[in-house]
Amino acid sequence: MGAWGWMTMRDTTLLQQALGLTPPWTVTSSQFDPDAKRIDIAVDFPAGSRFACPVCGAADCPAYDTEPKTWRHLNFFQHQAYLTARAPRVRCATCGIKRVHVPWARPDSGFTRLFEAMVMTMVSAMPVAAVARMVDEHDTKLWRVVHHYVDQARARMDASEVTQLAIDETAARRGHDYITLFVDIDRARVMFATEGKDAATVAAFADDLAEHGGNAAAISEVCIDMSPAFIKGVGESLPAAQVTFDKFHAVKIVNDAVDQVRREEQKREALLRGTRYIWLRNPQNLSGRQQAALAALPTRHLKTARAYRMRLAFQEFYDQPAPEVAEAFLKKWYFWATHSRLPPMIDAAHTIKRHWDGILRWFDSRIANGLIEGINSLVQAAKAKARGYRSTRNLKAMVYLLAGKLDMQLPA
Question: N or C: which end of the chain has fewer CB atoms below 10 A?
Answer without folding.
Answer: C
